[in-house]
């Protein structure tokens, strides 16, 4: 594509050099640029893309987009005010504005995004609609599963994924929209049909600084939608957002159980492996069954139902899709092989998620509830003592251990969790090594117990320092049990 074509309509501060050149590719990382490409220099949190212009030129960049004046020769230099924002516009144009041709559904909120997106995908597929998915566990283009390194990819990668979805004739895409992505303009050029809000509780305060900032970031999604905004009004922030959305031209659809919502559930029945309820909507009442446990599954189910209802999906397909979904990896996932006691792996990594999952699991514990968990390093520190306190309140025994310590001293993280734990009468041990912590939990378990291993869910690695080691809670629990003759 001609560079002039790519830049059409953009506010450019200065162009130095030839703008009639052909651009074959675009990139924001000098380490993987192709020939005849445009390199977008992003000022980051760790380093600054402007420092890698020479590297970029050596690898094939013939144009660079910058935010500040730079001294370079032999390439076209385009200066704009904000390269992150420009990246979203350029990426969308480069790939032919793919989000316009997709039925795009965005799900935001602190907890439940991944779970809700899988439910929506299953319902849409039940209707015969080819559906892409973008989120924490993996990205899906049709039947092809691809690794995901973040919940919501950079604008460039995101637009490329949409384009790839259209190439396999996908009709819809359901994606998680993280607060980081809304703040860092990754979804700037996405044209959403439906936006879903699950809930908001403290998280990512390292990045957003205040809850108000965090809420405002999430809220941005609902100004980018055209068909419907689906909001959980049992959530206090959801209620506030719904109030603010009332005057928007995009219709609002509310869901909830406690409040007077348009989409609601009554007669909720929960078992160790499932939930069922009577769904009440303005048009019909139907019985819904899901083979996933937990009260939060009712909420995620209502969110998915409301999103599909707003798209006029037939209730038969909604029911069938939800009934056929076999759980989501690492979300209340039972390690099946255990007989005397249950071992459950869950991705709860926020105070609210941990409290919800512990409450749900406690209802089904015939004996002790043993919790193994930690908190990630280089992330929000305020949640650590709060999660310690929650674990202490609901568990009969807690093993505080490492999550992904990243570059932090893991013992320092565990100490912060312990501070909260010590506010309770909870019995606990601190075992830094996660494998050893799981060994201890398994050895402490007796008939009727439940062991909840929380925080890492589907993750198949552990990040210690800058190194990534293989580690999968589900596999590790099984390995230990086999070694010790437990199963
Ligand atoms: C806080 C945050 O989101 N950071 C993201 C951001 O990093 P950054 O802006 O600090 O980038 P940087 O590392 O300083 O580098 C600046 C620029 O120089 C470039 N560079 C760097 C080195 C080099 O040799 N050549 C080069 O060109 C980089 O590609 C980048 O464009 O841009 C980088 C490049 O796209 C991302 O990799 C990085 O995500 C990091 C890995 C991250 O951990 N992000 C997490 C916090 C995140 O985004 N999480 C959310 C929410 C999760 C949830 O709740 O579900 C998510 O959506 O995943
Ligand atoms: N609606 C909900 N409300 C509260 N907690 C929930 C809800 N849904 C799921 N959880 C808990 O949160 C954990 C993470 O769920 P899920 O992966 O669906 O959320 P997410 O919003 O995608 O998280 P992330 O921010 O990491 O992408 C689950 O393992 C469960 O413990
Ligand atoms: N999406 C979350 C995942 C946290 C998972 C936990 N295992 C950790 O590493 O902190 C984040 O990026 O903060
Ligand atoms: Mg997620």
Automatic annotation (TrEMBL):
Mur ligase C-terminal domain location is: 330-457
Write out the annotated subcellular location: Cytoplasm
Q: Does the keyword Ubl conjugation apply?
A: no
Binding positions for meso-2,6-diaminopimelate per the UniProt entry: 379, 403-406, 455, 459
Task: Return any one Pfam family short name.
Answer: Mur_ligase_C
Domain named Mur ligase N-terminal catalytic is located at 23-95
Instruction: Reproduce the UniProt comment on modification after translation.
Output: Carboxylation is probably crucial for Mg(2+) binding and, consequently, for the gamma-phosphate positioning of ATP.
Could you say which protein family the record assigns here?
Belongs to the MurCDEF family. MurE subfamily.
Q: What is this protein called?
A: UDP-N-acetylmuramoyl-L-alanyl-D-glutamate--2,6-diaminopimelate ligase
């Amino acid at each position: 594509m001609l560079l002039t074509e790519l830049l059409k309509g953009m506010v450019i501060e200065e162009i130095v050099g030839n703008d009639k050149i052909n651009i074959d590719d675009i990139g924001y990382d000098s380490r993987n640029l192709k020939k005849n490409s445009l390199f977008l220099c992003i000022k980051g949190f760790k380093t600054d893309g402007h420092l890698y212009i020479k590297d970029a030129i050596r690898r094939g960049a013939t144009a660079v987009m910058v935010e500040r004046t730079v001294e370079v020769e032999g390439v076209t230099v385009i200066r704009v005010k904000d390269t992150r924002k420009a990246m979203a516009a350029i990426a969308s144009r480069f790939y032919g504005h793919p989000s316009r041709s997709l039925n795009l559904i965005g799900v935001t909120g602190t907890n439940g995004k991944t779970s809700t997106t899988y439910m929506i995908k299953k319902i849409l597929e039940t209707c015969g609609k080819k559906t892409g998915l973008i989120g924490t566990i993996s990205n899906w283009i049709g039947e092809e599963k691809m690794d995901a390194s973040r919940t919501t990819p950079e604008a460039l990668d995101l637009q490329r994924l949409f384009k790839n979805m259209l190439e396999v004739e996908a009709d819809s895409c359901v994606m998680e929209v993280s607060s980081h992505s809304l703040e860092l303009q990754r979804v700037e050029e996405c044209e959403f049909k439906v936006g879903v809000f699950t809930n908001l509780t403290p998280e990512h305060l390292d990045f957003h600084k205040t809850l108000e900032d965090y809420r405002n970031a999430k809220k941005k999604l609902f100004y980018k939608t055209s068909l419907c905004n689906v909001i959980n009004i049992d959530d206090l922030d959801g209620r506030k957002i719904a109030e603010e959305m009332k005057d928007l031209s995009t219709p609002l659809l509310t869901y909830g159980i406690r409040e007077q919502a348009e989409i609601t559930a009554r007669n909720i029945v929960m078992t160790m492996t499932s939930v069922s309820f009577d769904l009440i909507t303005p048009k019909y009442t139907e019985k819904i069954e899901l083979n996933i446990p937990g009260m939060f599954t009712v909420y995620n189910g209502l969110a998915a139902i409301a999103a599909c209802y707003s798209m006029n999906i037939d209730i038969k397909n909604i029911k069938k899709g939800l009934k056929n979904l076999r759980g989501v990896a690492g979300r209340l996932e039972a390690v099946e092989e255990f007989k005397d006691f249950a071992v459950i792996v869950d991705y709860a990594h926020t105070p609210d998620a941990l409290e919800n999952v512990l409450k749900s699991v406690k209802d089904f514990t015939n004996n002790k509830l043993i919790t193994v968990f930690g908190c990630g390093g280089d992330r929000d520190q305020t949640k650590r003592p709060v999660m310690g306190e929650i674990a202490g309140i609901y568990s009969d025994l807690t093993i505080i251990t490492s999550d992904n310590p990243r570059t932090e001293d893991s013992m320092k993280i565990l100490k912060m969790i312990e501070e909260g734990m010590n506010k309770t009468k909870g019995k606990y041990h601190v075992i830094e090594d996660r494998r050893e912590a799981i060994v201890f939990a398994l050895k402490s378990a007796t008939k009727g117990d439940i062991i909840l291993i929380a925080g890492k869910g589907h993750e198949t690695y552990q990040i210690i320092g800058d190194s990534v080691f293989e580690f999968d809670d589900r596999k590790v629990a099984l390995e230990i049990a086999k070694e010790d003759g437990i199963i």
